[in-house]
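Hi everyone, sorry if this is the wrong subforum. Our group has a chain we'd like a structural model of before ordering constructs, and none of us has done structure prediction before. Sequence below.
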Amino acid sequence: MQLNIKATGPHVQVLSHLLAKNPENVYERSEKEAIVRLVYTKFEVEDVEVFLYAVPDPIELVRNAPDSYDITQYINDREFAASSLFLTYIKSALGTALNGRPKEEYRQWVDHLFPFEVAFGPIATNITDDTIQALFAPMGYEVEIEYGDINYQVKFKEQSSARYITIRGEQTLQQMLKHIFVLIPVLDNYKHYFLDEKEIDKLDRYGEGWLEEHPLRSLIIKRTLRFSPLIKKSKFQLSNKGQELEKKEESGEPKIKLNDLRYEAILSVVEKLPHKASIVDLGSGEGKLSTRLGFLSGVKEILAVEPSQRSQLHALERFEKAKRRAGFIEPTSLFGSLFYSDDRLCKKDVMILCEVMEHIDEHRLAAVFQTIFSHYQPTTLLVTTPNKEYNQVYEMQKEFRHSDHRFEWTREQFSSWARTCAEQYAYTASIEGIGEEHVSFGFPTQMAVFRRGEE
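Answer:
Right subforum, don't worry. Here is the predicted structure as tokens:
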């Protein structure tokens, strides 16, 4: 986690007084689970550079955490990425400048414009480069985005969400820091703490003087406060367009979630199948679909396969609650992955991959589905995945619907893939749409139903 501030031109040395940090000394302070350091890498008459970075202790980050059993703590990016966590660490170091309260003799410089070049990162963000530009441009910044200079054997670099961002422009030190403190969490969309009304106060304080007229104000507020009750209490609130949309949604019929529509479509197909006694839910997550399958007539066995221990624990809780209702077939929770063959999954009546395939690297799909079609040989296979074309309806500010999606296919790409698989493995394939159909872009979700040839 790092923040680099450069300024050139007359009077730039006064920045040391606005920051309340002596250029002759190295600032070092322990903040919760991290060590924060600030050093002046350059301090000349018309050239000043300040480097601020935080080094967290990854063990302390998860010590006594309720989900410390989860293996993902060993592969997360929290100790490396600039996020709300980073801002918490550096806030005390930059508090004097952020609040605009240097010693009395330097108060006149609080409103002085300096030509800044500010670099920070890495940022793990799910929004596009164009949107990043649009977030900073209204304040007069030029924006440069870099993806790092590492060469991988596979296409990690093109798929990576991690970026280093540099902004250049004339600003007061206080306003520049306010922009950083609001927009880094917007970019990363990660909060390491519970969101309450303190977050409104923070947004109102740091957004004052620039957020009122920002073209992407609605996006900033939504990604900062997230929840409608908090958003409505902010003095900025949403744009008029955003408020009209919320009123329209509140006055209309209850909106059915797309995820529920997927489950309904899958259940409808399974219910009509002549053979459905044994079902495999591959990538079953927290067991929502598996639980619903447990109430279908004619189902005798459900194998809920999931690689995340945390998700499995949530699934077991859901299964336990469902057992109180009559006619429920309790799923068997299995730890497993699409990348490892498991003979327990062979020759079942139905196998389901609901919103799973897009989380797999595209170049690995062939091997995964060879295992499914050739080794497991389900009588019926159901696969759902997002329709990339429909993303235009959502007016998304990112390439994919989820940060963990490795790819998303158009209707033609998905149909072509399904036809190829069916021909190669002696299955038939049909394609269905799920959700509200758009006249130009089709359905938000697409589903392929494969049936083994001899059936």
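For your construct planning: The mean pLDDT is 86. The chain has two domains: 2-193, 258-452.
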